[in-house]
Amino acid sequence: MRLTILFSLIFAFAFSSVATTQLHNKQSLHLRAPPTISHLDTPAFQITKRQNGPDSAAAEGGHGGRRTKKTTPAQRRNFRIAHGVIMGSAFTIGFPTGGIFIRVLKPPNHVYIHIFTQLFSTAMAFTGLGLGVWLGLNTRYLDYAHTIIGFAVVACLVIQPVIGAIHHWRYKKYKKPTWWGYAHRWFGRAIIVTGIVNGGIGLLLADNTKGGKIAYIAVAGTAGFVYLMVVVQWILRTRAVRKDKASMAMKRDYMESTDTAEPQEAAAHLMPTV
After folding, report:
1. Which residues of 229-256 are buried (b: 16+ CB within 10 A; e: fewer)?
2. 19-44 pLDDT, tens digit each
3. What class has domain 73-248?
């Protein structure tokens, strides 16, 4: 009888323990917070957008930005299109056109038209940067390769006019090419090429349509080809002008030496011989 009572107590205690454990597990599942995507699980430097996670910063805090205000997918799409159009126009049309003007137009107006075109394109780039920052804060894109390269390119646009101004001042003073001029030209070309390439990276990040990518490649390729042809023509024309100047200088030196030699020979003939 005592053994029966003892076994009954043991069985009741075990059953109550199991029931309590199951109830606790059920309550834990209801109270547990939903899983979140940590920014540490995602590479900090990407080209294409994340495969998992929302398109807005509303559901994922941190990771390259914070949500500034509630936005809709339509608003983000409109800002994305505006950013792409403005930046693409500045780097595929604006800056190359300014570089072409300085080579094909006649002085002195070519310098002022070049300055106006490049400053206008720079203003477009800063406008596009503002739209890009807004997008980065609202779509968590501030830590991508496209965004980081974009910041660097726009920062270089601040330095480029300073180099150009120094070159213009020294060229007017000394009337000959300067190293500042070489730096201004090649630094500007590097900025344009980097900006065009970064625009292609932006199309990948935005998951643009195939038609949009083809249109961008066509415009950028055409602008690059035209600019290259103008630069090559300018180099060949400059070499021809320098060659003509050297030839004219040689002829002038020869004529001057001949003119000085003839009076000396005539005077030698007039001198009496002993």
Report:
1. ebeeeeeeeeeeeeeeeeeeeeeeeeee
2. 554 544 444 444 444 444 444 444 55
3. mainly alpha
